[in-house]
Write a structure and sequence with these properties.
heterodimer; A: alpha+beta; Cytochrome-c3 Hydrogenase, chain B; 5-stranded antiparallel sheet; 4-stranded mixed sheet; 15 helices; globular; B: alpha/beta; Rossmann fold; 5-stranded parallel sheet; 6 helices; 7 strands; binds iron/sulfur cluster
Chain lengths: ~475, ~180
């Protein structure tokens, strides 16, 4: 009879995610699943509320990437208003969106990822956190705090508040940027640039130590999806959807993001609250695709800013075709931070950036609106329908982390096949299971809540539910 | 001198209150000279210690797992702080109460689905019929409203608590701050 190994919880503390590894009759791993154990119901609980409340409400989906939800939601509302927002407003929204990419990637890389990279995956769990890094590598820890702060301060300078600013609104933004604040942001960019450049340097120098991780962390062919702009460059705010395959060939291009239902479908499985989106033309689960920093660098023809373009070219030279190892998500995050800082500087130098004309006004003109943008972790879709009074009657969200759901399961399977044999759970297996999920930087708070590293409690269960082995890691 | 022990717990919130905690930026490092973060999504220690001096809770009580967790945390905490509107009032997660669990799962897992529509029930914890604020199920010592409370506010209350004082929050925060 088939057996099941449970890893519970896999979150760093909270236990909102679990992993199960299924053995067949011969004790061979034949499936692995990530279980998202929490569900909040935004698609329903927004019902009956005015559509213009949506950006503020939907930002509460996630406190790590609230600006992404603000942007996608406001774009869906722009569509309901049927307005084209003023160009300066679009630029200002982009600046805030980029600032959030910076702070979220800094959190993922430094606060959550760097303890593993610097202290080692087998270091003392009591020390394996940002404060442990601070003791041994104070410069790196401070760099991380400063870089995240840089992003958060831009958000605050624009929107008056670091988390859940009510500044991005249907039709644009609700306050123009003052010259003084623009100059404050510009004055801070050189330090941020230096931080990301020296971080890229040490990260690249250290890559050799992680050969095994690079090889085994969800390293497989899949499709990659994300937005690109008209010239095929990296795009985080607007643009069209492009999908490439593992060889780097374009499978689909210039897809209209608002027609997402034509190429993305979603499946439900009984063991998790997180749905499994798949590429509709290929079907489920073969239509596996990845999104987020790794995918975006794989689908784009360039970044579009000088320093990031150099790094992008070096990154893409790692592998012919697409870069396939999910370990490289960490690397791709740093390249995107570099791009974001450069792009913020570029946007803030635009002649119309201080314009007073930052909001278009209209009543609801369409009964339906779809907003799409790139969140730190991948493409984000908000889709609303309203009644004649402008009250929400239906909503659908596809959250960035969800797109990677099939890939995360497949990554777990790859690791489990490699490291689990017989009825023993090795330390190596625990480490890898933990790390492969972390490489994706899943924003469980968008669907549940798990931050970064995951202490593991692994149970290997026999055919009749008896405990064969139990392993424990993380404190 | 032994440091004051500090924990942070995450129930049904958006993580924004934890992010606001991080927004203390470099002040966080000063704080950690007097306090030790012994349990939190931000550190790797997994077991909730026998007794923690101060625990900050983000989020409402939404699932059976949340309920079990907050009861356990209460037992092992001297001063329990409801951090943010979700913990204090139920806020956004409690908006589902208007509709009920069946309606919200139906929308997500039966209606907005292309393949295998079904409500997931295996392995994962069930949602409580009623999502509620923390003090509805355990005793809370300090309430800090805000969505999220500002980093300055969090710095103030944690510094006061670490110094052994009860913070006076009047004027520092409000609902939805
Ligand atoms: S109070 Fe606000 S910021 Fe805090 S968890 Fe709830 S929604 Fe997020």
């Amino acid at each position: 009879m088939a057996q099941q190994i449970m890893i519970d919880p896999v979150t760093r503390v909270e236990g909102h995610a679990k992993v199960s590894i299924h053995l067949d009759d011969n004790g061979v791993v034949d499936a692995a699943h990530l279980h998202i154990t929490q569900f909040r119901g935004f698609e329903k609980l927004c019902e009956g509320r005015p559509f213009y409340e949506m950006p503020s409400l939907m930002a509460r989906v996630c406190g790590i990437c609230p600006v992404s939800h603000l942007v996608a939601s406001a774009k869906a509302c722009d569509a309901i208003l049927a307005v084209r927002i003023p160009e300066p407003a679009a630029k200002l929204r982009q600046v805030m969106n980029l600032a959030q990419i910076i702070q979220s990637h800094a959190l993922s890389f430094f606060h959550l990822g760097s303890p593993d990279l610097l202290l080692g995956m087998d270091s003392d769990p009591a020390q394996r956190n940002l404060f442990g890094v601070l003791q041994q590598y104070p410069e790196r820890a401070r760099d991380g705090i400063r870089l995240r702060q840089f992003g958060q301060q831009i958000i605050e300078l624009l929107g008056g508040k670091r988390i859940h600013p009510a500044w991005i609104v249907p039709g644009g933004v609700n306050e123009p940027l003052s010259e003084e604040r623009r100059d404050q942001i510009l004055a801070a960019t050189p330090e941020a640039l230096q931080i990301v450049q020296r971080t890229l340097d040490w990260f690249k120098r250290g890559l050799d130590q992680f050969r095994e991780e690079i090889q085994s962390f969800a390293n497989f062919p899949s499709l990659f999806m994300g937005l690109v702009n008209d010239s095929g460059g990296l795009e985080l705010y607007d643009g069209h959807i492009r999908i490439v395959d593992a060889t780097g060939h374009i499978v689909a291009d210039r897809l209209d993001p608002t027609a997402y239902q034509e190429y993305i479908a979603e499946a439900v499985e009984p063991w998790t609250y997180l749905k499994y989106p798949y590429y509709r033309p290929v079907g489920y689960p073969e239509g596996i695709y990845r999104v987020g920093p790794l995918a975006r660098l794989n689908i784009a023809d360039h970044c579009g800013t000088p320093l990031a373009d150099q790094e992008w070219a070096e990154f893409r030279a790692l592998q012919r075709g697409a870069v396939l190892s999910s370990f490289y998500y960490h690397y791709a995050r740093l390249v995107e931070v570099l791009y974001s800082i450069e792009q913020i500087e570029y946007l803030l130098h635009a002649p119309d950036i201080l314009s007073e004309h930052v909001r278009a006004s209209a009543g609801p003109n369409n009964a339906e609106g779809i907003g799409v943008s790139e969140a730190p972790r991948g493409t984000l879709f908000h889709h609303y329908k309203i009644d004649a009074q402008g009250l929400i009657v239906w909503a659908n969200l596809i959250i960035a982390t969800g797109h990677n759901n099939i890939a995360m399961d497949r990554g777990l399977l790859q690791v489990a096949r490699h490291f689990i044999n017989g009825e023993q759970i090795s330390e190596g297996a625990l480490n890898r299971v933990e790390a492969v999920i972390r490489a994706f930087d899943p924003c469980f708070s968008c669907s549940t809540h798990a931050l970064g590293q995951m202490p593991l409690q692994v149970q290997l269960l026999g055919p009749n539910g008896t405990l064969l082995d139990e392993a424990y890691r993380g404190g | 001198m032994t440091k004051v022990t500090l924990a942070t717990v995450w129930l049904d919130g958006c993580s924004g209150c934890h992010m606001s905690f991080l927004d203390m930026d470099e002040r966080l490092l000063d704080l950690m000279e007097h306090a030790e973060l012994v349990y939190s999504p931000l550190v790797d220690l997994k077991t909730f210690p026998d007794m923690v001096d101060v625990t900050l809770v983000e989020g409402a009580v939404s699932s059976e797992e949340d309920l079990a967790k907050i009861r356990k945390v209460r037992e092992h905490t001297r001063i329990l702080v409801s951090l943010g509107d979700c913990a204090v009032t139920g806020n956004v997660p409690a908006m589902r109460n208007l509709f009920g669990v069946a309606a919200i799962t139906e929308r997500a897992y039966q209606e907005n689905v292309d393949l295998h529509p079904q409500v997931p029930r295996e392995v994962i914890p069930a949602l409580l019929p009623h999502c509620c604020p923390v003090h509805e199920v355990v005793n809370v010592d300090v309430f800090v409203p805000g969505c999220p409370p500002a980093a300055d506010t969090i710095f103030f209350i944690v510094s006061e608590l670490v110094a052994g004082r009860r913070p006076d929050l009047s004027g520092l925060t409000r609902f939805g701050a």
